[in-house]
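Example 228.
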Amino acid sequence: MIKAENIVKTYNGGAVEVLKGVSLDIKEGEKVVILGASGSGKSTLLSVLSGLERMDGGKVFYDDKDLSSMTEKQLTEFRRNTVGFIFQQYYLLPHLNVENNVKMGADLIGNKDFREIIKAVGLESKLKNKPAELSGGEQQRVCIARALAKNPKVLFLDEPTGALDEKTGREVLDYIIKSQGERGFTMVMVTHNLNIAETADTVIKMNSGVITEVYHNATPKTAFEIGW
Ligand SMILES: Nc1ncnc2c1ncn2[C@@H]1O[C@H](COP(=O)(O)OP(=O)(O)OP(=O)(O)O)[C@@H](O)[C@H]1O
Ligand SMILES: [Mg+2]
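Predicted structure in complex with adenosine-5'-triphosphate:
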């Protein structure tokens, strides 16, 4: 479903080459984990794959759609209809309560089920709370609810449990994996945590802007079976 061919991404007018020819293939419904040291280009790769940022060379295809040939308008439309994001920094709207933060995601596609999703992430009792009145784990669950409320075909997650303690991190990861199992979306998750790679179908290792290894897990583990 996603095919990247030789992606190059530079910053500072070409002075810094962050992605140095990255090619990959991701199947529909696949759970992919991207591992790599800090600064290896993982977040940059996610932002290019998801159409948030443009690449300087190479191509990214979603089936037969080529992101690199889209106009800004087409790219915005593509992001709205196809992808969801969960970032390490929560990016909730501080002046909106839980209900309205999630509704914002749901409104993008006219989804009326957003209260069900809030319930499913266990935040029914916090509907009227604003982000500052929530714990880190609760805020991350609001982000997950907001991303899922869009019914994305592809969910991108950048260190979704990075800011969470072990117990909350496992619960959040478990919820994400279960949602993936039920809804069948394609999932691309960046993490530093080697253990989390055991939950993936496919693991992609990066170093200094290139892919160094790709392997598959025959039996991906659950969030409660891995070390932390
Ligand atoms: N907007 C930018 N302008 C200039 N350099 C950037 C920009 N964004 C990222 N970089 C550089 O690109 C490199 C890769 O950054 P990236 O954020 O993709 O790494 P990462 O693998 O996600 O790291 P981490 O695990 O710490 O999040 C870093 O050296 C970073 O300084
Ligand atoms: Mg990063």
